[in-house]
């Protein structure tokens, strides 16, 4: 028997359902055809992608070159599902960072079933579009031509001029207002096959979701490319290259994982603007939808305020966590001694997170990430039986009782694990427990039951005493 919050007693068996959160594994998605959206910078590709998928996912700003990676989104039209891949601006003669962006667009086209070319109708066909058209005319894949930014009938004459590209009929559309988007989607569905040429088996329960997070230029995209074995994300010395979260299915240690490369968090959201603001929101969303986060830190540099802010965000989200110290190949003996002192001070909030020293550049120890991820997820899913938990807690409190508060010593009446993901424990007491004592219980919980790689939450519920009825 146990005592409820109002002082009444009930069967202990009833507590098994208290606050229990079930988690449905991600359904295995059927094979979906792939549409690649390409075009030169700032023609409205991401705006049109948001219109096609029916929600604001792709980062949009009125400057060229916001999108850099190839980012996949799920879309649904007339009961049919398909995948839309947004790409950065494709310029055949690009150099530097733009060359890497163009390479991602080319990879998207190579793996797509249908290619949607977007041309700005207010500008018309430029030499870049003519060069792109020459390449696509030699392609054996279906190509659809969309004339974007056609907000009214006055631009229809300009749309007709795009027949000169030799890519077939140009379909007028306004990504901003939705004009013509339904007709364009019908054409897209007619061109898409029922299933894509290539599929990637994900197992019965779907892959576990991993968010790659960290400050800009810490090596997140390089690590994703190393793990996937391909140039999945654009990598450049310029900090903040990644803007949109990039999903990739990666096989590690015989298991398929869904990795999400996120934008580096620069500063607090209230000081951010434009694409940086929306990128930070998508990074937070990627953490919330992930099950475990790899927080990537630059082992060659001291811990920064940005690093600590990212760690705080992951801890507050309640996700399992692995710390990846990247660029370990650059760390010498002196730096290692400095790190010991830094970690004792800076990582005081996450002493439970497993640490893996890696190098995305050389591939050093990246194979150790999969075991660390499994350990963290197993801890995240762990449930302690109520009987065992209370037996352990009784012995702990007998040896080290709670500190006296207000002249009275609170008693812990009962404890239960309310939920997993993350493990959350509720203590029912006769008085408030000091924060230091709650941390003491958490530390002892970890020593007894593990929870390596997962946050643990402890909540206290104080039982209110029943007032006397006043009857004699």
Low-confidence stretches: 1-30, 59-69, 196-204, 233-245, 269-274
Widest sheet: strand ordering:
4-5-3-6-7-8
Average the pLDDT over all residues and give the rounded result.
Answer: 79
Helix-and-strand structural type: alpha/beta
Computed over alpha carbons, the radius of gyration is: 27 Å
Distance between the termini: 30 Å
Number of strands: 17
SSE string: EEEHEEHEHEHEHEHEEHEHEHEHHEEHE
Biggest sheet descriptor: 6 strands, mixed
Count of helices? 12
Beta content comes to: 15-25%
Oligomer: single chain
The portion of residues assigned to helices is 25-40%
Overall, the morphology is elongated
Structural description of this entry:
This protein is an alpha/beta fold. Helix content is 31%, strand content 21%. It has helices at residues 45-53, 97-111, 127-137, 156-160, 181-191, 220-228, 274-289, 305-317, 333-346, 369-380, 386-399, 435-449, and strands spanning 2-3, 9-10, 34-38, 71-77, 80-86, 114-120, 143-148, 170-172, 208-213, 246-252, 255-261, 292-298, 320-326, 354-357, 412-419, 424-429, 457-462. The relative contact order is 0.10.
Summarize the structure.
This protein has a six-stranded mixed β-sheet with strand order 4-5-3-6-7-8, with helices on both faces.
């Amino acid at each position: 028997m146990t005592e409820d919050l109002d002082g009444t007693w009930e069967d202990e068996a009833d507590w098994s359902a208290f606050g229990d959160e079930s988690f449905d594994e991600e359904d295995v998605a059927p094979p979906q055809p792939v549409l690649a959206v390409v075009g030169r910078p700032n023609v409205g590709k991401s705006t049109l992608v948001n219109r096609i998928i029916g929600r604001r996912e792709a980062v949009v700003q009125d400057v060229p070159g916001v999108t850099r990676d190839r980012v996949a989104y799920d879309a649904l039209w007339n009961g049919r599902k398909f995948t839309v891949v947004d790409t950065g601006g494709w310029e055949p003669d690009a150099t530097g960072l733009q060359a890497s962006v163009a390479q991602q667009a080319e990879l998207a086209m190579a793996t797509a079933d249908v290619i949607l070319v977007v041309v700005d109708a207010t500008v018309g066909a430029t030499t870049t579009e003519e060069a792109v058209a020459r390449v696509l005319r030699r392609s054996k894949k279906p190509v659809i031509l969309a004339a974007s930014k056609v907000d009214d009938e006055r631009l229809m004459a300009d749309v007709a001029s795009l027949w000169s590209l030799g890519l077939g009929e140009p379909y007028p559309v306004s990504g901003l207002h939705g004009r013509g988007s339904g007709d364009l989607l019908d054409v897209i569905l007619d061109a898409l096959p029922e299933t894509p040429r290539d599929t990637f088996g994900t197992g019965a329960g779907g892959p576990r979701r991993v968010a790659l997070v960290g400050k800009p230029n810490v090596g997140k995209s390089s690590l994703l490319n190393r793990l996937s074995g391909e140039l999945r994300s654009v990598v450049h010395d310029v900090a903040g290259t990644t803007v949109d979260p990039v999903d990739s299915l990666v096989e590690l240690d015989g298991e398929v994982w869904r990795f999400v490369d996120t934008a580096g968090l620069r500063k607090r959201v209230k000081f951010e603007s434009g694409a940086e603001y929306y990128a930070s929101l998508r990074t937070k969303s990627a953490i919330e939808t992930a099950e475990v986060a790899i927080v990537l830190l630059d082992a060659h540099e001291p811990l920064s305020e940005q690093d600590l802010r990212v760690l705080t965000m992951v801890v507050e989200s309640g996700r399992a966590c692995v710390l990846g110290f990247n660029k370990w190949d650059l760390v010498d003996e002196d730096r290692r001694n400095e790190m010991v002192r830094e970690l004792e001070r800076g990582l005081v909030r996450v002493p439970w997170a497993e640490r893996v020293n890696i190098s995305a550049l050389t591939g050093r120890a990246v194979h150790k990430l999969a075991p660390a991820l499994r350990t963290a997820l197993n801890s995240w899913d762990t449930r302690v039986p109520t009987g065992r938990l209370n037996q352990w807690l009784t012995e702990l409190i007998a040896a080290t009782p709670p500190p006296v508060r207000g002249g009275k010593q609170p008693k812990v009446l009962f404890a239960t694990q309310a939920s997993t993901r993350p493990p959350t424990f509720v203590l029912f007491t006769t008085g408030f427990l000091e924060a230091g004592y709650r941390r003491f219980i958490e530390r002892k919980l970890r020593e007894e039951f593990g929870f390596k790689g997962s946050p643990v939450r402890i909540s206290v519920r104080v039982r209110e005493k029943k007032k006397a009825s006043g009857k004699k």
